[in-house]
Amino acid sequence: MDEERSGSFAQGTSRLSDFGGKLEEVLKANAKQSQQLALLQEQAESSRQSHDLGIETLNQIWELLKLSETQLRTRSHNRVLNALRFDGMEARVDSVSRSESDTFDWCLTDKQVPISHPEPAISFQEWLIRGNGVFHISGKLGSGKSTLMKYLVNHAVTKTNLEKWAGSRRLIFAQFFSGNLDAV
User: Fold this and answer.
1) Cα 153 to chain centroid, rounded
2) How far is it, in rounded angstroms, from Cα 23 to Cα 99?
3) d(Cα 52, Cα 177) in Å, to the nearest integer?
4) What is the pLDDT of residues 6-64, one digit of tens each?
5) What φ, ψ does residue 164 adopt, rounded to 5°?
6) Is residue 107 a contact partner of residue 124, using CB atoms and an 8 Å limit?
7) pLDDT of residue 12
8) Which pTM value belongs to this model?
9) CB-based burial of residue 124 (10 Å sphere; 0-12 exposed, 13-18 middle, 19+ buried)?
10) Which region among 39-53, 65-79, 132-146, 157-171 has the lowest average model confidence (pLDDT)?
């Protein structure tokens, strides 16, 4: 048993090291592109000062540089996301079964904390709209925690309530299912 854990730990450590290497490569590439962009911006500013170009032409060049910066940022974000990606990343969520209809509806419809479970200070629905911090869901092995989370992540009411919570701020909705750290 200890040998299996040791092997799994070593494998996990190796994967983490590989990820660190990939992330370092992405950061180096990003730094180089940032330097190139800064050089282009300096050249544009120099051209603006030393040549008698029309203001409209200079503004067009400046807008192109801004666009390049946006594209560079997008490319960098995509490189980081790709570095985090691994084979089988979706395997855990795909292995979680769908809930029977109406099984978890109470999570998104009840505005009051159930008398039978007084531990949370507010209901899950209220927490989505007005809460802060972590809403901790716990249970025994095989009790349906992952099935509940899959239901909540895929339900339109969850996103609607989170958008109410976010207000005018940008909502970033991410998910990751892990049932066995050896798989990561």
Assistant:
1) 13
2) 37
3) 59
4) 556 566 667 767 767 777 887 787 788 888 878 888 887 777 666 656 777 878 777 77
5) -60, -45
6) yes
7) 60
8) 0.53
9) buried
10) 39-53
Q: Rounded to whole angstroms, how far apart are CA atoms 88 and 160?
A: 29
- In angstroms, the CA 85 to CA 91 distance is 12
pLDDT at position 84, please?
Answer: 86
Render pLDDT for 23-32 as a digit per residue (tens, 0 to 9).
Answer: 788 778 778 8
Could you tell me how many residues make up the chain?
184
Q: Which two tokens stand for residue 162?
A: 């989170």
- How far is the C-alpha of 48 from the C-alpha of 144, rounded, in Å? 64
CA atoms within 13 Å, Cβ hemisphere of 42: 6
- Residues 124 and 131: their CA atoms lie apart, in Å, by 9
State the pLDDT at residue 174. 85
CA-based nearest residue to 121, from 139, 138, 133: 133
Is residue 79 within 8 Å of 29, Cβ to Cβ? yes
Contact 182, 8 (CB under 8 A): yes
Quickly list H helices, 54-155: 55-84, 91-95, 105-109, 124-130, 145-154
Q: Are 75 and 32 in contact (CB under 8 A)?
A: no
Are the CB atoms for 47 and 61 separated by under 8 Å? yes
